[in-house]
Design goal:
Blueprint: H1 2-14, E1 20-21, E2 24-26, E3 32-34, E4 37-38, E5 40-44, E6 50-51, E7 54-55, E8 57-61, E9 64-66, E10 79-81, E11 95-98, E12 101-112, H2 131-144, E13 149-156, E14 163-165, E15 184-185, E16 192-196, E17 201-205, E18 211-218, E19 222-223, E20 232-234, E21 242-253, H3 255-262, E22 267-268, H4 275-286, E23 296-300, E24 303-306, E25 314-318, E26 321-326, E27 331-335, E28 342-350, E29 357-363, E30 368-374, E31 389-393, E32 400-402, E33 410-418, E34 421-433, E35 440-447, E36 453-455, E37 459-461, E38 468-478, H5 481-503, E39 507-517, E40 520-530, H6 538-556, E41 562-569, E42 572-573, E43 576-580, E44 583-587, E45 590-591, E46 595-596, E47 612-617, E48 621-624, H7 639-648, H8 654-658, H9 660-668, H10 677-696, H11 706-717, H12 721-728, H13 732-750, E49 758-759, E50 764-769, E51 773-778, E52 785-792, E53 802-808, H14 813-817, E54 822-827, H15 830-834, E55 855-860, E56 874-876, E57 880-884, E58 891-901, E59 908-916, E60 926-928, E61 932-938, E62 941-948, E63 951-961, H16 965-997, H17 999-1003, ...
Parallel strand pairs: 15-17
Antiparallel strand pairs: 1-4, 2-3, 5-8, 6-7, 8-9, 10-27, 11-12, 12-18, 13-14, 13-16, 16-17, 19-20, 20-21, 21-28, 22-28, 23-26, 24-25, 26-27, 29-30, 30-34, 31-32, 31-35, 33-34, 35-36, 35-37, 38-40, 38-41, 39-40, 42-45, 43-44, 46-47, 47-48, 49-50, 50-51, 51-55, 52-53, 52-54, 54-58, 55-57, 56-63, ...
Amino acid sequence: MIILYLLIHFLIFLSPSLQICLEETSYKGLSVRWPQSEEGTDIKSDPLCYNEDTIITRNCVNNTWIPSLSELTPCFEALHIFDTPQSSLCPATYMKVSENNTNYCYKVEKASSWSFPCLQGGASVITHLSDDDVESILTSLKKINVSRYFWLPGRRATLFSPLIWNTPGKMWGRNVESNNFLPVRDCIFKNCLLLDIEAREITSELCWIEYPSLCFYRNDIHYPANCPENYSGVRLTPQESICAGIKVSHEELSFEEFSNISQSQCTPMGDNIENDLSRYVYKEIAKNYAFPENTWCWFSTSFYNHVGDQIGIFKSVFSDFRVSINNKGSIRLNRKQDSMKLSCLACRTQILYEQPELLFEYNEIHNTMYLTIYFPSGLWKYSENDTGIQCFSDAKGFVKVIDINELPYMQIKTSKYQDKTNFTIEKVVYKVDLITDRSAQYWCEGHTNNFTLIATEKVIANPQGNDIHVFSLGLEIFFTDDEIRIELNEKMIQVCENVTLIFNADKVLLMEMLTYASEKLLVLLHMHMPIMNIHNEKGDNIKILYENIKQIAETELFKYNYTFVNISSSMYCLPTTSDSEGMILEWELTAIGHIAAPKQFCLQANGLPVKRRCLGSYILGSRWGQVEGVCNKNYSPSIATTYLYKFYKGRMPANDTFEFLTNGLGYILNDVGIFIPADIYYLSISLQQILNIAQSNKSSVDMGTIENIAWIMNRVMILDNRYLRLAQTLNSTNVILDAVDVIIHKLVKARRNTSTLRSHQNVGYDLARQPNFLIQICYPTINNISGIAIRYKTNTSNFFDVDIIPLFKNTTYDEVLLISNLDIATWIPGNVLDSLIISQNLTSNETLQVENIRIIISIFHNGAVFQELDPNDLILNSRVIGVSIPGFLPNLLHPIPLIFRNFNNLAYKKQCGYWDFMVKNRASGFWSSKGCYLVSTVNNTSVCNCYHLTHFGQLINIRQRIIDDNAVNTKPLNIISLIGSFLSLLGITGIWLTAFVFQAWRKKAGSKVLLNLTGAIAMPLILMVVFNLGDTIFLGENGKYFASNKMKIICIFLGAILHYSVLASFMWMLITASLQFIRYVRVLGDKRPSRFMIKFTLIGWGIPLVPVAAVLIFDPQNYISTASLSRNEYAICYPTGFYLIVTVIVPICIILFINITLFISVLYAISHGPDGKMRTTDIDLIGAQIRLSIFLFFLLGLTWIFGIFSFTKNLVWSYFFCLTSTLQGFVLFVYFVICDPITRNLWVTLMKPQFRSNSPRESVTSITNT
């Protein structure tokens, strides 16, 4: 001990004396306290001391403050932070291109492998800068000395294809070509674009290597956007849908006052945006305002700095300030409690754009492509004049960009009214001219405002029709690595010339180079070959040409050292045969993506012909798939099947062919009960054939009348829906729909004599009505009839028992919606009729001559012939109505109205849609919503606007519920909670009444703990009832709820009490759990510590004060929810965000974990003996143990486990939680008062003094030993 004593004193002697500077208070300017501190530097005051642009600090040296109080700089309320002088006009972290070029800035991104750099906002490329600009950039990059190599946003799309740019805007998809002194030295075996600043060249490299990226941006923050008035679109943000502006007030306001009057549309510009960028944006925006010099505006709630090199991550440096900014970009930090007022607020708001929709169509008659864009404002655009779209074609081999006529062919912007919200419909149509008269693919691509790539389907245009056919030829050619590296382009040109010569082709194009291995290059060529129209059948002519080409390929290509791999049509699977159990099946010419049936009569067991899909693509060519199904040789065809099959095979007499649409179909459709799926397929093929015959010789076919056609469609619609669905796998119902439309158009065109029209109050129109199908033909020249409304009389199942009401071109929505029992309606308004464009002359916007208009309206009672095979979220929920105007473009400048009665008022999102016949790579049509929009929902009807003509319906989206399951169940859950809370409070009242009546009972230690526990439980229950029943704290507006300004202090007060009471109830549950553990497990002994009740009270009611005080001190506003809430959500005052997790969830989870552990320990102790073996007990004791287990489950608050599980979105847990947790007080009353024999006996004795009861057992519901 002596040695240890001497050692300690020796160490104390050697250690230096502790240097401490005593606490001081300075009174210069703002009074601040300098706390007692050990020796050190840069010690800060409390609160912080500021003087202009710096934080004042002091050093503690040799027990002395430096500087002294007399030398100390005065402290002020605000901190000024000034911009450092910038060497360019670019934002911070961006660099200027050169002294002479202020149009662009560039930025060096952190090193990584090539992964589409500069995709989000990069708008230019280095090859389009001048020599001086490039020289300046190379010099700057050498000075910063980050790397020798920099990734550029370009790469190859396929093997050995040209390098193309991958930056949004006008350079998207264009070949990399240099327009300055930087040469492009392409290494063909490397795919990603690289800048070498030492070699001063652009080259290609392996994409997995990590280099920094070099991106170029427009130095113009004003992005073309649909911003509110006086706001401007802002570039350089991760999502370019941010609008920025300055809100100016006639009087000076505090930050909070500004926020209160503009919270719906203004977020402070400096919040959550990189500080340097937001300040630069403000400086640019402020130039549009005539502010006096050094005008200050409110800017942000906190001062944010960038965190390291993590893009998009910011840290709040000073969170106890309100930040203001002047027109020079300097910022000033004022304390929240300061009374500073300013006359303006820098704002930003995010514009929610509709998702752009693209439609790309080829007009075969006029050899023109039409690109329709709905909501073009949702596209990312390089400039105001940019279309936002880039179109491509492979007409000349490798994919290349083609030009769009930048002057819109059609452009509209209208507003519609839906759900009390203004909503703008935008539509623009561009013409895209073909770049060759040869067959080719065309498509378009663009980027949305958040830089998501969208694209149209690839459309094949074949202007030369039956004269030229395209074949896909695969060749394997020997190339050395050096030839690939040096002479590839020249060699491939020679290959194309040789193949042209070998096959006498009209044109040969190199489409793709597929693989290269072992010095063998697999290439894909397209040969455009003239067709000799020897046979009547197109398929036979192509098949002959194919066989000739294949023979030449097998005999001639090897002479050029080319290895023949494959030849196939790029558009069709050619006629061929297959064997099915000894039966030879012939397969006709079939387009890629379609399904064919054989010529032979070969039906499966399901009544559908065996079938075969044509696989492949335009680029790679076609190939037949496997035959699906086996012929049922025992099948005996019906009369209908025999008739239709004979007509399909061309075995009918001429007279039967002439009468096919009248007597023929009238005969076989009279008994639809005998129809099978094959009959529907043969019917569709027969209708196609009869139209082909009528096209070549009009007098050879009796087209019948519209009444006859209506009868035919009606009979088709009553066919077995299962058979219609099976037949649609062969596209049969689509073909029938199209054929019926063509027949009606021919009948309308032939009917020129208006004297034959139906007279309806001197109004001319034609009408054909069947139970399930109705046709109306309108002639607006006669009394302006342009539409139809159907009013049902009863819940009828057909159109015979309805009223037909003609509608006029000047009909209004309100007039139609006033029609009682309205089923369906549509009409062509006058503005649509006046703006129709004649399809015979598309070179000018020639308006329609009204005497030529025939409006055809067809109404389907159900969707039987609209069979969608592929899964889709859109389901038909109305009748179907078709609208067409022969001779005019279906693309409309103004919308047509459609009103549908909903079949079902299900809680799903309603949409308006149309039947899309585009069947590329799919066997059937599908419901789509492009160009059709829901205007409003009135009672049980949906009002739609559509901007094109076809077949329409009202749809429901089964993936989008209007009210989700949680919202649907909110009311019953609230009711359960309120009832449970009432019962629980009733039970707690019973416990406290027991304590009040029986003095001996309340003096027991266990009763004291119980009273504290129930008091803590009662507090949150009372407050929850207040929040559920009271509407004074939250104000409602447009279905949303906000905490009113007058009630914010009350909200904070109630939120703090609720916060405290919840934590206090859990603390008392923890205390109770420990007492149960002491009693039943007995590992801590039986004796209670001295003054244990005082200690428990301090713990139970004292510890919860700590987290509540922390929230009140650091962020009392946290108790007020900043997000607007619907009344179906939990509109209460309570901690949110970080404080919710730290001060509520974490403590509750810790206590629950401890309580669960103690609960398991108690259960084990009461069910096992001291030796660890299971007790052998009587029935009474088992019952007592079960009751004890249930009691402990509620007593220890373990019902909150269900609350944790409810976060899984499984409503079962939510119901369990509401049913059990709110009943805790009632359960305690039942166990402690009703079920406890001692307590119960007290009440019984009070009511009936002569009654006495003795329990044979000690109560198992006592909290502690008494």
